[in-house]
Amino acid sequence: xxxxxxxxxxxxxxxxxxxxxxxxxxxxxxxxxxxxxxxxSELEFDVxxxxxxxxxxDLEPDLVSAWEKIVWADHLVWVHPVWWGGLPAITKGFIxxxxxxxxxxxxxxxxxxxxxxxxxxxxxIITTLDQPGWYYHLVYGRPSVNQLKxxxxxxxxxxxxxxxxxxxxxxxxxxxRKKWLEKIERLAFKS
Length: 191
What we know:
There is one protein chain. By secondary structure, the chain is an alpha/beta fold. It has a single domain, classed as Flavodoxin domain (Rossmann fold), CATH 3.40.50.360. About 40% of the residues lie in helices and about 20% in strands. It is built from 6 helices and 7 strands, in the order E-H-E-H-E-H-E-E-E-H-H-E-H. The strands form 2 sheets. The chain has a 5-stranded parallel beta sheet, sandwiched between helices. The chain has a two-stranded antiparallel ribbon with strand order 4-5.
């Protein structure tokens, strides 16, 4: 049985991202997929990687629990909004604090090559926008996707990583939002 962890990177519980998480989870459970969730805004941790990689800062219990879910999962589903072209600060802080050398990658001594420690996992990024996805991609070069997909997940060995854009959220009516949620439920069947 496939195991999925859904990582919610939106700090506002009233956001549409929470409905997306619920729709994905519903679709996965209907397919008999095991699901666990990480809601980053509910975790208690310092988002600041104050020493960089020079000195290890102990992980708070909530980060340890989140890491255990990531290790457990076969498939990582990231749900987040795009703010100023990037990830919300709390999501970036979660990655900074948890995606560390020895956890998700290892540098090789005297080499520019690294070992990817999450090779057995696949991923899916579902991101909400206040512009069409094609516009975000063509005009801005999709910086949040490049950061999360290429510079984080693929760097650590997660592959393949699919991307789904949901937008324009700001101006969407209820009928459009319902169609998006139905689409998200179906996406879980393809995990």
